[in-house]
Specification:
Blueprint (H helix, E strand, L loop, with lengths): L2 E7 L5 E7 L3 H10 L3 E7 L2 E2 L2 E2 H20 L12 H12 L5 H11 L3 H15 L4 H6 L7 H13 L2 H58 L5 H36 L1 H13 L1 H24 L4 H10 L4 H15 L4 H6 L6 H13 L2 H58 L1
Antiparallel strand pairs: 1-2, 1-3, 4-5
Helix pairs in contact: 2-5, 3-4, 3-8, 4-5, 7-8, 8-9, 8-16, 9-16, 11-12, 11-16, 12-13, 15-16
Length: 423
Amino acid sequence: MPRFTYSGRDRAGGSAGGEIDAASRRDAVRLLAARGLTVSRVDEVAVRGGRAAGGASAGQATGVARRTTGAASGGGAVTPGRRERLPFLVALEDLTSSGLSAGEALRLLSLRIKEPRLRQLCVRLWERVGEGASLSGAMASMPEVFDPSTQNLIQAGEATGSLNEVLKRLIAHLTEQRDLQRQLASALAYPLFMMVVAGGVILFFLFFLLPRLQTLLSSLGGELPTSTQILVSVSEFALRYGIIVAGAAVFGAIATWRWYQTEIGRAATDALLLRLAPTRAFAVSRTVLAIAQTLSVLLENGITTAEALRMTGRQITNRVHRAAFEDATARILEGESLSNAWGRTRCFPDLVLDQLAVGENTGNIVPALKKVAAAYQDRITRQLHLFTRVIASGVLLTVFAFVGFIAYAIVSAVFQLSASFQM
């Protein structure tokens, strides 16, 4: 029977290593997991017939995993994405917190989960872990699901024997990010709905009601008031050139969106958002929140300051702020204090810099970052609510003003025509 060397950690977090006899590498991992070990490396040392004894078994296991993946996807191509990351981590933490090793938890998830994409994710990870890879190494093979920050955090948890704590903090961090995205989407949903309704009302008046009203007024004869003439002219223009204007607007929107997708377009748009007063405060708040949330989680879980700063920079969506943060990171690595370097970026309010300076001086930078993140989470929520009310009120006022103008134009035309008949 082949012999394997292994290394890992026991349930108490201590280092463990040695040799074990097993029919295959996967069997070796299962035996070690049954002993309560978290395996980080398994290597075969016994060779039979010029070929690793576990090679055929590993190949068979791979084939079984692939067949399981095909069955999970119902025969079609189902590719897991970034959306499956948080549900997977939650399910994994539920099992590992009950005392199971990461490998055994992956095996159970690959068998029990019914959702196709999530099940395929578990199967692929279990396939890699069953071949001897660590959990973080298996995640590294799926960058479309797990970003470098997640991989590094899991690796740090495996190295320190605190995987459960890392999973809990990572889940809390990703949940906060998801909630923020949902708040932003819900804040934009109502104004967009109001704009669609308002556009429908305006188009109804221009293309359906006004042409009929114009025919009625023309049959009565007489001169129309100025407001009615303006309204009729707008209606005629919409009927004649409305399709051309709509086509040009759609073409312009598509061209603008494609330009925005380029790096130059994103940088120019981000710079414009920082110059406009209504959007500058929200952009700054999002940047401060992203930095405080991400950096506090990374530092709290044992990631080095240099690597944590580099990974945090990738989470900043505003290109102008990201470039300034990367320049500040370079100065921090050269020995400058964090608060001084960030002060030069002009991305942080003075009060935030003061809080961070106090945290640096007292050695409690992570709690300071958490306080800043909590404060800016509340601030962004208030800003989104205010934004929703302002946009909705603006759309309603626009619709009311347009409808009021139409009513005034119609009533004034009726009165003027009635006066002409009396004369």
